[in-house]
Amino acid sequence: MTDVALTKKDFTSDQEVRWCPGCGDYSILSTMQSYLPELGIPREKIVFISGIGCSSRFPYYLNTFGMHSIHGRAPTIASGLAISRPDLTVFVITGDGDSLSIGGNHLIHTLRRNVELKILLFNNQIYGLTKGQYSPTSEQGKITKSTPLGSLDTPFNPISLALGAEASFVARTIDSDRKHLLETLRAASAHKGSALIEIYQNCPIFNDGAFDLVKDNETKEAALLQMVHGQPIKSSTHGLVHKGASLEVVELGSVVESDLVVHDAHNPDPAYAFALSRLTSTGHNHVPVGVFRDVSRPGYSSMVNNQISEIIGKQGPGDLNSLLTSGDTWVVD
Amino acid sequence: MGKPVISLDQVVIRFAGDSGDGMQLTGDRFTMDTASLGNDLSTLPNYPAEIRAPQGTLPGVSSFQLHFADHLIQTPGDAPDILVAMNPAALKANIRDLRRGATIILDSDEFTTRNLTKVGYTTNPLEDDSLDSYKVHAVALTSLTVAALSNLSLSRKEAERSKNMFALGLLSWMYHRPVEATENFLRAKFAKKPEILAANLLAYKTGWNYGETTEDFAVSYEIAPAKMPPGRYRNVSGNVALAYGLVAASQQSGLKLFLGSYPITPASDILHELSKHKKFGVITFQAEDEIAAIGSALGASYGGSLGVTSTSGPGVALKGEMIGLGVMLELPLIIIDVQRGGPSTGLPTKTEQADLLQAMFGRNGESPVAVIAPSTPKDCFEMALEAVRIATTYRVPVFLLSDGYIANGSEPWRIPEVSSLPDLTVEFAKSQEDFQPYLRDPKTLARPWAIPGTEGIEHRIGGVEKADVTGEISYDPANHDYMVRTRAAKVAGIKVPDLLVDDPTGDADVLLLGWGSTYGPIAAAVEQLRGNGEKIAQAHLRYINPFPKNLGTVLESYSKVIVPEMNLGQLAMLLRSQFLKDVIGYNMVRGLPFTTAEIVQATMEVLHD
Ligand SMILES: Cc1ncc(C[n+]2csc(CCOP(=O)(O)OP(=O)(O)O)c2C)c(N)n1
Ligand code: SF4
Ligand SMILES: [Mg+2]
Q1: Under CATH, which number does the domain B234-420 receive?
Q2: Burial of B79 by CB count in 10 Å (0-12 exposed, 13-18 middle, 19+ buried)?
Q3: Closest by Cβ to B38, choosing from A13, A77, A332
Q4: pTM (predicted TM-score)
């Protein structure tokens, strides 16, 4: 490594980017490319591992180590890498189908273990690469190629799912909001264990406008409930108050500022973050963005490697001859 | 005192009882004590898939067979000379395997009307004439044990649990086995439970004394040590030898060992064993499923570790897509398949060799991998090292096909000197300009092992077809054709030792050709056939993909080639398609290894047809 600070250009590979014009993946890529120099980590120590889907092409466009793997399995490969190579910074890039359909099992287990991975879930609420079937986050009734009469499935709420899986860091952000995406990436990097970031990502080809409410200039200020640790949770017009054990969105004029819920991302009780995550399940009128939960819990890789160094500390490194000759042995002369 | 001692050259003992009776432990201990006397030996545990099938029933019978001798032997033996039956179910389930005149030692306390009816005996075999052609010792094992332990403050039930130690003590007296090792073993095992320890030690001693003092047992037996090459020995099962081989390979290569695994019979013991050896820097990762298990192993390989996954057939079925990714990424990866009866859940605790074609072809696309198969429990050690040599030299997934028979069976193993183990050091790609991730070594066709953390060689790889040399995504037809052929050529070019043919007279017409765990029964059959004056050649394949270079010539040299397999002819299919040799299959899929007699008979039919 030279001492010269790296720039966005250093993290941009020579590959031609092949997403459809206007795809939300472009802005996420651009933000990531300008964010990476900030980390101060040499390029060779950064690895992006993706599954399969439009979004999973992401690693090709970054001049770091990268692997475009198979559908849904990126967290497994990334786990093996992160556990065996704690010196690396490992990102997982995945889509809503990749991480919540075929790879749902791996996502939840990776989160509960708290493997040191930054998982970026590009949620476009559709299968992009296979040309527009409904996904596990598509709303009920959605008309797609595979659901001409409307889908019947109840969708997953990825944030609720992650919280239910014991995730220690869960956040939501939006492809086109560069500043917010950057802040969210920073918060995730500062977190020690697994970090799941759901990124609302527009697919102009198969699910255009899915996130218009939170992306259009006319509606977004009112719709986005900003979650900033230590600040009241509110949008330009609405705020959040406690209602019994649950939370309720009210007009700002109807309450005094001091009644608003002050965001505590470090709240040890996941019920709070869960209640926040449910606000979108009733429709898209108000959408919390920011970090839902950020609690400290030992990372899996560091625990695995500590166990090894502790036993070596106590007993010394293994000796092959002693292992082979352990137990009952006898000698033939 | 003063009872006569008879010398024997070999004995086959089978311990059989309810799965709660501790027969595996009893067998293990008898094996250890036998090993330390220097006999050659071979074992066959056979237990039900259920942890505790209903007590006293036929499905609940668990057994452990041990063959030991004053000469070298190849198998656990076809028919027991001695059956220890802890209840009527054990007698009923095993009696048809005994030869006439065999000895049966049974627990007469258990032969109650209730227990007899449970397994369908209408009359008590102790009282009718059905056991007339056997030497029967009806011993009140349970009540003798309970009586011996009456001074200890144990419930009757707890006391009864030590009856397997009574049986072990009695057999140890009969065959002059040393007692110290088992006593030490019990002391270590029950260090925290002094009452149970006392009970076990006392039951063991009482069993021994029972043989020594009662008239029922008039003679005891001696089996002299076998002549084995000098060295330090231990007894090993295939799974333990495999685990040790992987640790050794990690040490010899300087690579960190990473095992990603999901529990499955009969492979779990590899995970258990390796998880004990963390001080070798071994990482064991019990994943959420078989896909995650192999995915984590591949991720570890990508990072420069020795990525290994262990499983059985159903797990392999799940791993297929990830193995294909390993083929595309051209990274070292080891897949251990301890085969069991299939398809589907099949026979989880029984042995079979029916995953060969799954290993060869069970993936989408042209997806060549190396396939090797250890031939005996101790051979698992060497083949683990071979798997690592091939995987790291050629950067390719390697299947190691073990099976339930050699995984759980055991035999004495001459422990190798660490200095005699192969050097497996590897070279990672170094920092360089214009790095090309798919530029191949012309000798091995391997691409560089380029691990993250190496400055200047950052690159992207994936499961999409890649351009030769650059590794960039390529949909070019000619490139795909070239890459498919190159991956195949790489595997075909893996260097493996020539096939050794054992043909002492040099003019046999018939060759017995096996692979994997059938080595023991085939070798024993060959010995017998030659003893009977037959001319027969033997060869055994431990390398299946690629085959040894001389295999074609060997097949041509024999007019008839018999291929015994515990499947419906999978190796035979490969041989026929590759060499156009119409080999003669001998196939059985009963979940049990071949007996020597079966192979002798099948061979006789071919020799004299
Ligand atoms: C085993 C397997 N099954 C199915 C596919 C086909 N497939 C590729 S991507 C995909 C869904 C992608 O959706 P998502 O993860 O949401 O990614 P997006 O394209 O929307 O970014 C499917 C079904 C595959 N590649 N592999
Ligand atoms: S199909 Fe949708 S998600 Fe995929 S590249 Fe095109 S716009 Fe993006
Ligand atoms: Mg999608």
Answers
A1: 3.40.50.970
A2: middle
A3: A332
A4: 0.95
